[in-house]
Amino acid sequence: MATGLKGMNTEQGRKLATSCTSDAQQILTITKDLTRQLQETEWYGQDADTFRNSWTSQYTKALKQVATALEGASAHLKKEAAAQDQASGA
C-alpha cells in the first residue's frame, strides 16, 4: 500500500473486479458439477434423501449467494474505479 495515496489504483481495482467475476463463475460451475455428481452417486435411503434435500435447499443456495455477492463486489469495484478516474481526470 502506497503512503500518501488517496483513492483507488484503478488498474488494480478493475483487476480485482475481474477476479471477483471469474471466481463467481467458477463457484457456479463447481456447484453444477457437484450437483451432477450427487445425482449420479448411487446412494439410497433416508440419509441420501436428507443429504440431497440439504444440498438443494441449503448448500447450493449458499454457494449461489456467495457467487452473487462476488458479482456485486465486482460491480461495486468497477463503479468505484470509474468514479476515481473521473475524479482524477484520467
Automatic annotation (TrEMBL):
<protein>
    <recommendedName>
        <fullName>WXG100 family type VII secretion target</fullName>
    </recommendedName>
</protein>
